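[Meeting: bench + compute handoff]

Bench side (C.D.) handed over the final construct sequence. Compute side (W.E.) agreed to return the predicted structure before the next meeting so the bench team could plan truncations. Sequence as handed over:
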Amino acid sequence: MSLSKKDISNLQDIFLTKSEFNTFKNDTTSFQYEMIEFRNEMAGFNNEMTGFKNDAMNNFDALFKKLSDIKTELISFGNHYKRQNKLLENHEVRIQGLEAAKA
C-alpha cells in the first residue's frame, strides 16, 4: 500500500514537521529555564518571608511577655487593694464600736 498525496497532507496536519518539532523543543527548553529561575526567585521570596515571620514572632513574644508581666502586676495590686479595703472595713467597724461604746 502506498501513501497518496492526500494521505501525506493529512499526516502533516496531524504530526509535527521536523522544524516545528525543533521550535517546540526550543520553546520547551526556554520554558524550563524560566521555571528554574522562577523557582529560585520563589525560594528567595520564601526565605525572605520566613525571616520576616520570625522577626515578627520574636517581637510578639517580647510584647506578650511584657503584657503578661503587666497582668501579673495588676493582679498583685488588686490583691493589695483588697487587703487594704479589708483593713479599712475593720477600722470602720472598730470606730463604730468605739463610738457606740462612748455614746
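W.E. noted at the follow-up: Residues 5-102 form one domain. C.D. will use this when planning the next construct.
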